[in-house]
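Quick one, T. Sequence first:
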Amino acid sequence: MRDFNGLGVAMVTPFNADGSIDYAGLKRLTEHLIKGGVDYFVVQGTTGESPTLTQDEKRSVLDFVLEVNNGRKPVVFGIGGNNTRVVCETLDKFDAKGVSGILSVSPYYNKPTQQGIYEHYKAISEHSPVSIILYNVPGRTGSSISPSTTVRLASDFKNIVAVKEACGNIEQIEEIIAIKPADFQVISGDDGLTLPLISLGAVGVISVVGNAFPAQFSKMVHQALFGQLHDARPIHFKLRKITQLLFKEGNPGGIKEVLKHMGICDNHMRLPLYPVSEETRQLIYREIAESELIHV
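Structure tokens:
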């Protein structure tokens, strides 16, 4: 699969109170997203709390989503890290049946040079059995993939087909769009920037907010992709405040609070992540009520 157009959702991982994976909640979430019109799933990205899951747990979550999904939507799986050798070994052992692509975060903590980042993804390209989406999120990794490195990777490796850009810098993303190969896709990694980035040439978003509001977000994204910006703009502004609140104390605390409110899964997270404060919880609930985004 080369086309990751539209609304991709970075799925949360529901947990029980004892920290075990809540598979009933994961099934409810999967069905909720399909009903809401998402275009593809992203399993075990940042929002899925992937750093706190073992490799066996990550595989179990993926297999469960694949089973519930039953081929209805494409599935992307997160495989990345800051030890290139280990990432490549993981890919060598990876059973990619049913998986359309991998989302691979830029190496974090090590702070590699641009050449180091290029060589890291070159190695991943040589080992990956499926298409690769680069993931640039400097707020988490401590370094950023430059536009020139992104375009160099897109030009040199045919299985590197897209980038999820979460740098928050529209000018940087605009530069990628301006100089990239024609078939390379730019995907928004920031919910609040989705509409303006699509207007510049991005093909969609890998969303956090879409976990709770897939129907509204999907409608906005598809309207924007079809050039109906006048129709998409009111939805963007309706989601604007709740989007800000959901990230007020980090991700995925905010979105899990909404999913709890909706009866999809609880708000449990694994340490060091922790549920949002009572103050933020009340702000989220007030905005949901005032905006009439959901009815529960």
